[in-house]
């Protein structure tokens, strides 16, 4: 009898626990649903931004995982350049659509408006005047593999677009420089890289082959006041922090102007080169990428010449 009584008490506790878990899940589901803004809130917020956005404005989501929702409602206004910028230099203002009290910035905005559960905030940015964007102009560059005292040109071709995505690295564009058909990763062209923080970056894929450089040369470049360079390795490779450093050397009119050395763990690296004192307004600029061990060195860089000074991301 005592044993039967204990079994009944255990069964009662089990059923009580099951009922408590079910009640908790029901309450949690109601609470979570209450935190999700209604479609009308998103539409009203989108209409508010759509009526005020300028041609050099950027739109972001807070938290970042809400980005697909923002793009669903404002997709036509989210350009490739604004969705995956090298930094904030070219933008006049930033619009943020945020939920659950999340924000991408700590400083107070110049404008704030709420639409149900969606908060719209806007900041004025100190924008640079970009004189030359190397990513935009990559098709007009000369790309070559340096081999000792000689070099082998890479051909600008139309080729099948790469898949990209998880396990595939950045997507290969349908127009790019192909340097060696037997090594399908050995191409140079514009793509989108996911950096160490999984932030998308629009940049030029220039995978190194080893100590001898892969070279991209741009002619008659307007220099402005400074040349700003960024570079990084794709997240899937950099997160292991086991790869060889990648060196990007920048030459202006055959003079070494700067060197960006990217080491795993640094994320989206940057370098600013002062050019206003060089004594000439236009020049040939070349970018050379090398590494001791090219294994998994999915390196991508972006650069631009600028006419004013501002803080970069």
Q: Your description of this structure?
A:
The protein is α+β, with helices and mostly antiparallel strands. It folds into 2 domains: 39-124, no CATH class; 130-306, Jelly Rolls (Sandwich). It is 20% helix and 38% strand. It has 5 helices and 18 strands. The strands form 3 sheets. Strands 5, 8, 9, 10, 11, 13, 16 and 18 form an 8-stranded antiparallel sheet that branches. Strands 7-6-12-17-14-15 form a 6-stranded antiparallel sheet, with no helix packed on it. Strand 3 (111-115) and strand 4 (118-124) form a beta hairpin. Mean pLDDT is 89; it is low at 27-34.
Given this structure, which CATH class of the largest domain is correct? Answer: Mainly Beta
CATH architecture of the largest domain: Sandwich
Query: Kindly state the mean pLDDT as a whole number?
Result: 89
> Low-confidence stretches at least 5 residues in length (pLDDT < 50)?
27-34
Distance between the termini: 74 Å
What keywords describe this structure?
single chain; 313 residues; alpha+beta; Jelly Rolls; 2 domains; eight-stranded antiparallel sheet; six-stranded antiparallel sheet; 5 helices; 18 strands; 20% helix; 38% strand; globular
């Amino acid at each position: 009898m005592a044993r039967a009584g204990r079994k009944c008490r255990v069964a009662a506790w089990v059923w009580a626990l099951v009922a408590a878990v079910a009640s908790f899940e029901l309450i949690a589901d109601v609470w979570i649903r209450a935190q999700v803004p209604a479609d009308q809130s998103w539409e009203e917020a989108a209409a508010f931004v759509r009526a005020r956005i300028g041609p050099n404005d950027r739109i972001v989501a807070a938290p970042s995982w809400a980005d697909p929702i923002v793009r669903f409602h404002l997709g036509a206004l989210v350009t490739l350049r604004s969705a995956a910028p090298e930094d904030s230099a070219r933008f006049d203002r930033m619009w943020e659509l945020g939920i659950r009290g999340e924000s991408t910035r700590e400083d107070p905005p110049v404008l704030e408006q709420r639409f149900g559960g969606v908060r719209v905030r806007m900041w004025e940015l100190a924008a640079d005047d970009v004189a030359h964007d190397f990513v935009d102009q990559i098709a007009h560059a000369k790309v070559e593999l340096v081999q000792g005292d000689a070099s082998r040109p890479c051909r600008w071709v139309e080729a099948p677009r790469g898949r990209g995505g998880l396990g595939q690295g950045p997507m290969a564009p349908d127009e790019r420089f192909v340097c060696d058909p037997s090594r399908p990763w050995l191409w140079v062209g514009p793509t989108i890289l996911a950096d160490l923080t999984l932030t998308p970056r629009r940049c030029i894929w220039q995978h190194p082959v080893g100590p001898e450089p892969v070279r991209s040369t741009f002619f008659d470049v307007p220099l402005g006041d400074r040349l700003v360079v960024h570079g990084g390795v794709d997240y899937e490779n950099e997160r292991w922090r086991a790869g060889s450093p990648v060196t990007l050397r920048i030459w202006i009119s055959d003079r070494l102007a700067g060197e960006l050395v990217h080491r795993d763990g640094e994320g989206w690296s940057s370098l600013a080169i002062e050019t206003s004192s060089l004594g000439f307004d236009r020049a040939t600029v070349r970018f050379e990428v090398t590494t001791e061990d090219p294994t998994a060195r999915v390196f991508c860089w972006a650069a631009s010449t600028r006419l004013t000074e501002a803080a970069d991301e």
